[in-house]
Amino acid sequence: MSDMYSEASVPDQSGKTILITGANTGIGYEAARVLAGRGARILLGCRSDQRARDARARILALHPKADIETVSLDLGSLEYVGVGFAPRTPWTRTRSRPSSFIEKLVKSALTSGPRYARGSPISYA
């Protein structure tokens, strides 16, 4: 098997801020773990604050010097979804480093089944 897409092939991410949705489990967690190990500042975007904290603790156990913040982010809520959602969400005003910005986005969260907004079905990926 080729090492083309292995953890070892991920380049240094120092100085990059990456928001990862669905970061407490599955692909989102694995992306966060690998990218944190490569030096990125990781924002773990999760619906559950407790699960986000648990994921952060697991990653820090593997990479004690990792720079990881948890972000309360519910992509099934219209409060958080839409063009320009970041300026309206509470975490953008309370982050430990408000001058930094997100340079990369890993979209791993999804909702299943129809959700409704103003009477119309909606879905997010």
Strand content: 15-25%
* Topology pattern, helix = H, strand = E: EHEHEHEEE
Total count of helical runs of at least 4 residues: 3
What distance lies between the first and last C-alpha atoms, to the nearest angstrom? Answer: 30 Å
Supply Rg.
15 Å
Keywords summarizing the entry:
two-stranded antiparallel sheet, disordered C terminus, alpha/beta, 125 residues, globular, 21% strand, 6 strands
Account of the protein in words:
There is one protein chain. With 125 residues, this protein is of the alpha/beta class. The chain has three helices and six strands; from the N terminus they run βαβαβαβββ. It has helices at 26-37, 49-62, 91-94; strands at residues 17-21, 41-46, 67-72, 104-106, 115-117, 120-122. The chain has a four-stranded parallel beta sheet with strand order 3-2-1-4, with helices on one face. It has a two-stranded antiparallel sheet with strand order 5-6. α2 links the parallel β2 and β3. The chain is globular, with a radius of gyration of 15 Å. The model is unreliable at 87-95 and 119-125 (pLDDT under 50).
